């Protein structure tokens, strides 16, 4: 398929059947924390070599786009070929993390863990430059925390307004915006609180997008699935129950003009992220289909086993790349409800991918993606 030149063609290309997005746009701070956890140094060269694993792996059969952090948009592989060239050669469109991280809402929020996203002031010039550097799409992450009195109306409306403005600026610059209102997994909430928060957040986001006259056919939505919080103590819902609730909320809140819903993995294990995506697609087809593609834009769920292999032995590049392709293949199958139940993950099922530093609880870490 040709990625086309209009934003609506590009958006459709990114979410075409059997494909999803590799979210590899962790900020330098987040990436260095992940590397440090495995014993690797956080130098630019280590980050570059780690990214090369993915961008030069055989991922183009299942991956339609890769979101890059800005330092990587201009980086080269070890043969001096720009990463953007390696990606485009296998049909993977380069995208860019366009936001500048989170910061606490200065006043009026219900908790100091409530944040909004920085970067709007310089966004237009930045997007023009990213487009010149080869990016075809962008991502902006808002993070909303569930607790007894959050997300507050203020946090919801402020983040929705920023997402709406960001989307419009991207589209004006020829980039497809990925609109990411992430409901954080952190917390004790159950499925009901997760659904209620998601509905409030999604309704506000689409209202803001309409206020900005954003083209809903030229954007992609990147939500969290409806899952319980990481500290929920009740019974664990099945993939089927997650699929039912996720589809119910998406059908209620996401307009049919939007071509694709690209879920984030958000702290689920690699296996859960694949199993839940597969269940969502199986259920959608039992229900007669859905108006949008239901696929993935995963970070941790496409990378964690790869980093595990490579960090234990940096000479195992080929093995790490085979893992990158295998994780992409499993999720590509899940994105059309055809995952066979075999998962390539080398991580134990109890190994959590939760990262509480990702943006809400400590001031210095608010830079993190
Ligand atoms: P995870 O899949 O690791 O949640 O990352 C997706 C992402 O891009 C979050 O901003």
Provide the β-strand percentage band: 5-15%
SS-based class? alpha/beta
Radius of gyration: 19 Å
The small-molecule ligands in this entry are: 1,3-dihydroxyacetonephosphate
Quaternary status of these chains?
single chain
Biggest β-sheet strands, sense, barrel: 8 strands, parallel, barrel
Low-confidence stretches: 360-369
Query: How many separate helices?
Result: 12
Helix content: 40-55%
Number of strands: 10
**Overall 3D geometry?**
globular
What is the strand arrangement across the widest sheet? 1-2-3-6-7-8-9-10
On the 0-100 scale, what is the average pLDDT?
Answer: 95
- Element-by-element helix/strand order: HEHHEHHEEEHEHEHEHEHEHH
Alpha-carbon distance between the two ends: 31 Å
In brief, what are we looking at here?
The chain has helices spanning 7-14, 28-37, 44-55, 70-73, 83-89, 123-132, 153-172, 191-211, 239-253, 270-286, 300-312, 317-334, and strands spanning 20-24, 63-68, 93-97, 102-104, 115-117, 137-144, 176-183, 220-221, 260-263, 293-298. By secondary structure, it is of the alpha/beta class.
Structure overview:
It is a single chain. The chain has 369 residues and is an alpha/beta fold. The protein is built from twelve helices and ten strands. The chain has helices at 7-14, 28-37, 44-55, 70-73, 83-89, 123-132, 153-172, 191-211, 239-253, 270-286, 300-312, 317-334, and strands at 20-24, 63-68, 93-97, 102-104, 115-117, 137-144, 176-183, 220-221, 260-263, 293-298. The strands form two sheets. It has an eight-stranded parallel β-barrel, surrounded by eight helices. The chain has a two-stranded antiparallel ribbon with strand order 4-5. The two termini are 31 Å apart. The model is unreliable at 360-369 (pLDDT under 50). The site of 1,3-dihydroxyacetonephosphate (13P) has 11 residues, from helix 11.
